[in-house]
Amino acid sequence: MVIGSPSLFGERRCDSPFVFTAFVALGEKRVSFEFKVLDLAAGEQRTPEFASQSLTERVPTLDDGFFSVSESVAIVEYAEERWPSPEYPRVLPASVQGRARARQVLGWLRTDLAALRRARPSDSIFYERVTTPLDAAARKDADKLVRVASALLGSRATIADDWCIADADLAFALMRLHGNGDALPPALARYAEAQWQRPSVARWVELERP
Ligand SMILES: N[C@@H](CCC(=O)N[C@@H](CS)C(=O)NCC(=O)O)C(=O)O
Q1: CB of 17 closer than 6 angstroms to any ligand 1 atom
Q2: Its pTM surpasses 0.85
Q3: Cα–Cα distance between 12 and 167 in angstroms, integer?
Q4: Cα of 58 from ligand 1 centre, angstroms
Q5: For 116-144, what is the mean pLDDT?
């Protein structure tokens, strides 16, 4: 039995790339949900109540009333099956190959480019820019990101035939550079900006932050 609308737990600074993914996916599904933020610095993720819902004491966590799940990719996959197409818009591509590519991008962005993430942390996109030049390791990661993003997109506006959640994630990664004034090839800068204007993404960008 489903009681009420789902809640998505995030963090109060609203700069987590993982919460971003879940927030955008639910927005794309046009599911009405309550966004609840925890103060991670104050340890609110460790309260017994939240721990029992998230299991891992981490955000994002989706509370769907009768079921809770954490981990951004698990939330995306859950949302795709819980609110399926054609009744609800897709967040993963329709084709087998498209879904494989999207999952590749989601997995890759969560496990690679550590030096770039250190040099251009996600808070620099939403709070204060970082203007110090990229160190050698971050430069190498930035070059890799540009190479992979260019290959993924070619001359298209999306990674797969239609928009998918991996486009939002790829734009987030590119914004680590573009948002901090680091040069991007014009086509990638246009892609990142277009993603930033997508309504589900713009809702995140425009959240009130402390
Ligand atoms: N692999 C996870 C990463 C989630 C994650 O690292 N969440 C951080 C916030 S960005 C968190 O909840 N940290 C609190 C803690 O570990 O105590 C995902 O994709 O959701």
Answers
A1: no
A2: yes
A3: 24
A4: 5
A5: 98
Please work out whether the CB of residue 45 comes within 6 Å of at least one atom of ligand 1.
yes
Nearest Cα residue to 125 out of 60, 170, 172, 184: 172
From first CA to last CA, the distance across the chain in angstroms is 36
Query: Is residue 13 in contact with ligand 1, taking CB distance under 6 Å?
Result: no
| Average pLDDT of the chain, as a whole number | 97
The C-alpha atoms of residue 137 and residue 155 are separated, in whole angstroms, by 28
Closest residue CA from atom 11 of ligand 1:
58
Please name which of 130, 137, 136 lies closest in space to residue 177, comparing C-alpha atoms: 130
